[in-house]
Amino acid sequence: METVPPAYGRTPGFGLDRGAAPASLTTERLNLRLIDWIWRIRGAVPLPPGQSTDEAFDRLAPLFGESGTRWQRAGDTLTFTKTNQAAQDKMSVFDGGALRIETAGATAVLRYQLTSRALLACFLAPLLFLSLSQVTILIKKYDKPPAAAKKDTKKDQVHALNPIDKALGAPAPEKPKKGKDGKPKGDDDKKLSPKAGYVFAEIFAFLYVLGRILEDRLVGRLFRKHLTAHP
Known about the structure:
By secondary structure, the protein is of the alpha+beta class. Helices cover 40% and strands 16% of the residues. It contains 6 helices and 5 strands, in the order H-E-H-E-E-E-E-H-H-H-H. It has helices spanning 23-33, 53-60, 117-142, 148-156, 163-167, 195-228; strands at residues 40-46, 69-74, 77-82, 96-104, 107-115. It has a 5-stranded antiparallel sheet with strand order 1-5-4-3-2, with helices on one face. The protein starts with 22 loop residues before the first helix and ends with a helix. Residues 1-13 and 15-19 have low confidence and may be disordered.
């Protein structure tokens, strides 16, 4: 598989190595990093003593042999992308990323950064539902037909029984029951409500926080397990 050398001698996600990027580009990357934690997970796992780079990547290879995964290795760095991930893929929540082994003396560390569109979607979903709730509130505020009061008055009127029904002993019609706000019961059910939007926003916010913390721990544990597993 063809390997394209990174611009400015930079391995994606791991900083500048051999060259220096323009100041504007460096600032842009720093600004992006302030928000990319939303959909990107970074971490590091120490390699067992004496384990070489080749051996480490050989142990991690089964993780990238799943259907829909494409990967390439250039020296001490492995990059991958995933499309149409299978449910049984242990890294199915991620759509791509890079892994790099850094060696300092006798110590070696696997550093990784992984991206996930699923995490980004869960982060944006609460904002979407909150916006829909606000739109619903505005619609309720400004969408009031002028004839509403007249309709309510007509609804409250009770028609008298005709003589035949009265002779047959039919009960007199009751007035429509009103709620606490003085309006007939059942009217609120027909109106728009922002409550559903708030509920969905809370659900997706919870899913994002849970997924962000859980996936961070699970992927680090997964890499550690493969690196330290006995052959």
